[in-house]
Amino acid sequence: MIYAGIDVGSVAAKAVILSNGKILSRVIQPTGWSPGEAGKAVFEAALAEAKITRQDVTRIVGTGYGRVALDFLDRAVTEITCHALGANYFFPANNLVIDIGGQDSKAILINKDGKVLNFIMNDKCAAGTGRFIQVIAMTLGLELDRLKELPPAKPATINSMCTVFAESEVVSLLTQNVPKERIVSGLYRSIARRTAAMAASLGSVRGVTFTGGVARIPGMQEALSDALGCPVNVPDNPQIIGALGAAILAKND
Q1: Helix axes 130-140, 163-175, angle to 10 degrees
Q2: Mean pLDDT of the chain
Q3: Residue 159 to residue 1: CA distance in whole angstroms
Q4: pLDDT at residue 124 greater than cutoff 70
Q5: The domain that contains 22 carries what CATH number?
Q6: H or E stretch including 192?
Q7: Where in this chain does the record put each ATPase BadF/BadG/BcrA/BcrD type domain (predicted)?
Q8: Spatial distance between the Cα atoms of 174 and 149, rounded to a whole number of angstroms
Q9: Stretch 78-99: mean pLDDT, rounded?
Q10: Are residues 245 and 190 in the same domain?
């Protein structure tokens, strides 16, 4: 049987088609102005990539903040549950999931089956999220993709995790001729330390899976590993983890 998972986030919509426990297709597209349209479009693109039709899909589960806009789902589930299952698919030995997306960040403690034991989430402000990085990148005059190309450097000190105040700090550092790569390294370190502090309340860790769009940045991977004091595992495509978890849930229902 074939199952589908759709994750409509604030920045990107993702869809995964699953059959016999294997991924048939995975697609990521910008969410744009309409979560409902984005969810439908990414689902259709995933069907086309898998060379199947809607009638071939047994069950569809949706997640993400835009799930309420999808009227063709069999079930809608919170992203916490879906990220836990998706991360467990790739790294079943790990019991901590760190997800940093466009508008929120979360730490999820899970068991060996991917069931959520506890979690903590920051969705009240942009601090420590993809949006936070985007604002700082704009202040530095850099495209987001350019951040991954910057060489490692000694981190500059960025004290504030408030987007507005951190932006002011960055402007001040630029006027002092601090190299951009040092500022970006300082940004990663600040986010990583905040995230590690958030995760510390959840209990002992035996392995970490890092997901979300921010997990694609090598410098952020290194900073998070340093802050947590242990290696972090990153799936090949960390943005699809929520959609994958939704597809797994569709299969398990």
Answers
A1: 30
A2: 94
A3: 51
A4: no
A5: 3.30.420.40
A6: helix 180-200
A7: 5-250
A8: 19
A9: 97
A10: no
If asked whether residues 72 and 153 sit together in one domain, one would say no
**Contacts of 51 by beta carbon, 8 Å cutoff, 6+ apart:** none
Q: What is the CA radius of gyration of the chain?
A: 18
Residue (of 244, 245, 10) closest to 105 by Cα position:
10
Given this model, what pLDDT does residue 215 score?
A: 95
What is the SS3 assignment for 172? helix
Report d(CA 189, CA 217) in Å as an integer.
13
Q: How many Å apart are CA 209 and CA 198, to the nearest integer?
A: 15
Say what the pLDDT of residue 126 is: 64
140: containing domain: 94-234
Residues 174 and 76 in one domain: no
Check whether residue 3 and residue 69 sit in a common domain: yes
Same domain, 166 and 100: yes
Q: Are strands 57-63 and 75-76 parallel, antiparallel or unpaired?
A: parallel
Percent of the chain with pLDDT over 90: 81
Based on the fold, state whether residues 121 and 173 are members of the same structural domain.
Answer: yes
For residues 229 and 242, state if they share a domain.
no
CB-hemisphere CA count at 13 Å for 104?
Answer: 13
Spatial distance between the Cα atoms of 82 and 133, rounded to a whole number of angstroms: 24
Instruction: Choose among 172, 91, 111, 180: nearest CA to 141.
Output: 180
Same domain, 84 and 180: no
Give the helix ranges, DSSP H, for 51-129: 79-90
Q: Does the pLDDT of residue 71 top 90, yes or no?
A: yes
Tally of domains in the chain: 2
pLDDT 10s digits, 209-236: 999 999 999 999 999 999 999 999 999 9
